[in-house]
């Protein structure tokens, strides 16, 4: 059974999570040709993720202060 792992920022609305799971499943079923697909969503808070040597939360603060 294929497993699709999605890691990213939290998705606040449950409907958007449902949409993500549904659409990922639909395309995987089409490609694999089997109906059993598992999707796991791992949500990461911005203070737990860094990019280019900087925490994502700090990048967001900079962007807000620039506007």
Question: What can you see in these coordinates?
Answer:
- 0% of the residues are buried.
- The chain has a two-stranded parallel ribbon with strand order 1-2.
- It is built from two helices and four strands, in the order E-H-E-E-E-H.
- A hairpin with a 2-residue loop joins strand 3 (50-51) and strand 4.
- It has one domain: Macrophage Migration Inhibitory Factor (2-Layer Sandwich).
- The chain is of the alpha+beta class.
- 45% of the residues lie in helices and 24% in strands.
- The termini are far apart.
What percentage of amino acids are in beta strands? 15-25%
CATH architecture: 2-Layer Sandwich
Low-confidence stretches: none
> Structural class of the secondary structure composition?
alpha+beta
Strand order of the largest sheet: 1-2
Average pLDDT score: 93
Layout of helices and strands, plus pairs?
Elements lengths: L2 E6 L5 H19 L5 E6 L6 E2 L2 E2 H11 L1
Parallel strand pairs: 1-2
Antiparallel strand pairs: 3-4
Give me a quick take on this structure.
The chain contains 2 helices and 4 strands, in the order E-H-E-E-E-H. By secondary structure, it is α+β, with helices and mostly antiparallel strands. The longest helix has 19 residues, at about 15-30.
